[in-house]
Each structure stands twice: as C-alpha cells, then as structure tokens.
Amino acid sequence: MLIRWFVLAVLFVSLIVNFVDKSILGLAAEPIMKDLGISFTQLGLIGSGFYWSFPIAAILIGAFTDKLGSHRAISYMLLAWSIIQIAGGFFVSGFTTLFLYRSLLGISEGGFGPAAFKEMFVWFPQNMRGKAATIFNSGAWIGAFALTPLIVMFIQMAGWKHTFIYSGLIGLVVFFVWTVFVPKQNSNLESDRQAGTPETKFKWSEFYPILLSRTCILTLLASFGYFFLLTWMSVWMPLYLVKIAGLSATQMGWASASIGGVMVITGLVFGVISDRIYKKTHNLRTARVLIVGSGMSVGALIITTLYLAHSPVWAVIAFGVGTGLASVIASMSHIVMSHQLPERTAVFSGIIVAVQNMAGIISPAITGYIIDIAGKGNVEQGFGNSLITVGSVLLFTSLLYLFVNPDKSLKSKEKIEPAMSNV
C-alpha cells in the first residue's frame, strides 16, 4: 500500500525541517552573539529555554494527541512552529526576544515526535514498524548533521534572520502538503486506528503500574542514555572536530554531513534487521530489545575509543557508527512502550521525549564543566574525559535495557497480524 509510504515520507520531511529549525541557533551562534551582544552564558540560557519547554510540551501535547487524533495535532504543530520560526526572523532583537522565541519553538515542536509515532503506528503493522520508525528518525540525523554544510552556507550568504524565515516558509509548505494530501484516516488498517484511540477517559489506575514497571523504567533510561550522547554531538562535536581533530570550519561541516550519512545507514540496517527478526519470531524481546541493546553497547564502546584516537577519519567512523548503533533505541523505545498500553501511545511517547530532553539539559552542562576543570591548556584531555563520561552513561543504560521484557506487558490490547505486512 503506497499511501502508507507517502505518509511516512511527509513525516520524514517534517522531522528534517524540525531539526533544521533546532540547529540554526547553534550553527549561527557566532553571528547571533555578535549582532545581539549576547554572552556565552546568555546563549546557554537560551538553549536551556528550548530544552526546558520541550519535554513539558511533549507530555501535554501527547495527551492532547491521544484525545483528538494525531493527524490534527501534527497539523497544528506544523503551522505553529513554522509561524514562530518566521516570527523569529522578524522580531528577535536581543536576549529577551531570542529566549522567548526559542522557548516557544520548544513548546510548538515538543509534541511532534509522540504524534508522529502514533500516526505511523496507524499506518504500519507491528512487523513493519521498526523499519518505518527508523526511516522517520533518520530525518533527525539529516536535519541535525547531514545538512550542516548547506545550512552554514545559507547563513553566510543570507544571514541568520533570513535563514529563520526561509526555514519557516519551508515548514508552511510541509503543513500545506500534510493538511491537503495526507488522508485523515486509514480505512485499510482501521482496526489499528481503533486500537490506538482511547475508548475511555484517562485512568491513573491503568497508567501508573506500567509507568513504574521495569520495562518502562529501563526503556526510559536507555532513551536517556542515547540522548545524552546525541546532545553531546549537537553541542560539542563541532568544537571537537575543530579543536581536537584539527579540521577547519568548512571541513567540519562536511565531516558532520558524513557522520550523519553513516548514522542513517547504520540505523537503517539495524532497523531492518530488527524487523526481520520480529517477522520470524514475533518476539518483541528478541527483536526490539536484545538486538537493539547489544548494538547500543557496541556503539558506546566505539565512542569511548575517541579518548585515545583523534584522527578525523576515525572521528567520522566512530561518531557515525557508534551513534548510529545507539540511535535505534530512539524508534524502538516508542514501539516497546506502545505495546504496553496501545490506546495511550502518544502519552508514553511524550514521556519518552521528556526524559530524552532531560538528558539534553544535563549533558551539555556536565560536559562544559568537565572540560573547564581540565584547564584551558588541557582541552584535549577535557574532551577525552567527557567522551568517557558519555560512553559510560550510554553503556550503563544499554546494559540495563537488556533486562526489558515487553512481551510480558501488564496490559496490551494490540493484536499482531503478520499478514498485514502484505496489505
């Protein structure tokens, strides 16, 4: 059924735009600080404003999505973040307006992941969700890494304000495509849609046992570990490539793009492997936990090798493969949790996103402290220590994830229909 792939394609492009919007601030940090007279401390506060508002919005909008439907929620968010992005180009004039813009962007984008996963699970049966979710998540890697040279070039040519505006206009185009061309329901998989829609009001009594279960806690920790690495990549990797690997700014941009490409390929391969194993075994633990947790552990070990090896080539390989192996949890965590209580998929996805962004708040701050205490004359050692820290967090959480057993869910209404993969 081609329509499901069209829906996925639009969600994929939406996520690319979503992450491009996020990335512009960091990539344009130097001219923004110069134009607005902003200090490093103020820039850090602006970045935190996004991550503080993002997880709160993820949970609230996740609940809203479960109630009113993912298609409508995605429409609202696409429109909201596009308008906010355009407004940022026109109205940002100092610290206060930039902080407000960034916080509003976090609120408008916070619930997109939960809503997108809920929509995907409507269109894709269980034995196709690993590949679909991994394809969707690769949009984040492309927006955050692969498009870096293009974004940097556009900032240099048009300025950061115009970059804000044009990225917002692209978002409006995606909004138009979503609202006009993407169907609001999937008649061929109507049973899946009904399974993902709450028939009763939210009941804490049905929710908290799952929230406190081993499966939920360890899955959330694994997501935290991955995002601890990912935010290190987004904030500190460009500086690492320049100061430690010895690349120029232009070379750094292309290295980031290469890393993004390796991440996409690695993540897709593992996503396909997970789906094939599930198709053969119909065992979530084997396909979504053991394979993914093992890959995360290997990825963590690869990342820690950068403590000793600083060559640009190895940096591209290690960051790309290591993060690519770890990144599969970004999609599998939603699949595992949707199995626990299918009618509350978006709420659980919102909680996952919230926990991930807690790592986004903590990781950059800890890394900065680790580099500072190493001393100005020993930046290389500071970066090395931070990589050991990041790798250790990822390794610890990935090993814990191996103890997850989603097949023993407390309450699962999802019906596995292998034949649906041929629909």
TrEMBL record:
GO cellular component, one term: plasma membrane
Keywords noted in UniProt: Membrane, Transmembrane, Transmembrane helix, Transport
Annotated ranges, domain Major facilitator superfamily (MFS) profile: 7-409
GO molecular function: transmembrane transporter activity
Main localization, broad class: membrane
Transmembrane segments: 38-61, 73-93, 99-117, 138-158, 164-183, 211-233, 253-274, 286-308, 314-335, 347-371, 383-404
Superkingdom as given in the UniProt entry: Bacteria
Record keyword Transcription regulation present: no
Pfam families named in the record: MFS_1
Keyword Transport in annotation: yes
Places the protein is found: Cell membrane
Membrane topology: Multi-pass membrane protein
Name of the protein in question: MFS transporter
